């Protein structure tokens, strides 16, 4: 076979076949549009809507998370402030209690001091009265012995000295 024969057969257009293929192609496109394109397009729209909803949900969740983080931060700041106030109140209460305790201790010490002063004064008065009584008794004894005995001056001095020593010994025993 010669190349012209092949070339001649190829250049002849078969319009009937072409028309058949064209109609077949158009029918195929119509079937694809009806059975495939609509469901695929609907599926793509649903997918796009789902993605958009997911993006919106994610944005809402992010915003809520930010709001929650801000609320927690504010609550943390408030708790720090409240804790500081509680500590400050506790310090003030402690200081007030310390002052009350110190004032009570000072008052009690002052009361004890006053009582001790009064006791010392009373004891001093009792001691002075005791000494006065002892001196009076001593004087009476001396006078009675002087009267009963007419002593000389040296004997009187010795007698007085012995009574004073005896008085000192009596006070030491008490």
Automatic annotation (TrEMBL):
Location of the protein in the cell: Cell membrane; Endomembrane system
UniProt signal peptide: none
Superkingdom as given in the UniProt entry: Bacteria
One MF term in the entry's GO annotations: proton-transporting ATP synthase activity, rotational mechanism
Ranges annotated as spanning the membrane: 18-37
Gene3D superfamilies xrefs: F1F0 ATP synthase subunit B, membrane domain
Family the UniProt entry places it in: Belongs to the ATPase B chain family.
Record protein name field: ATP synthase subunit b
Organism: Liquorilactobacillus cacaonum DSM 21116
Organism lineage: Bacteria, Bacillati, Bacillota, Bacilli, Lactobacillales
């Amino acid at each position: 076979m010669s190349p012209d024969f092949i070339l001649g057969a190829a250049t002849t257009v078969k319009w009937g076949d072409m028309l058949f293929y064209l109609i077949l192609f158009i029918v195929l496109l119509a079937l694809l549009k009806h059975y495939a394109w609509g469901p695929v397009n609907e599926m793509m729209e649903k997918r796009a809507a789902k993605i958009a909803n997911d993006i919106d949900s994610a944005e809402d969740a992010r915003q809520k998370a930010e709001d929650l983080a801000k609320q927690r931060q504010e609550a943390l700041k408030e708790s720090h402030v409240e804790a500081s106030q509680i500590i400050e109140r506790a310090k003030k209460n402690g200081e007030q209690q310390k002052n009350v305790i110190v004032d009570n201790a000072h008052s009690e010490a002052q009361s004890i001091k006053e009582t001790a002063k009064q006791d010392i004064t009373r004891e001093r008065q009792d001691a002075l009265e005791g000494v006065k009584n002892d001196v009076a008794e001593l004087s009476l004894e001396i006078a009675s012995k002087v009267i009963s005995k007419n002593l000389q001056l040296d004997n009187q001095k010795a007698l007085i000295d012995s009574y004073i020593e005896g008085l000192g010994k009596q006070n030491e025993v008490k």
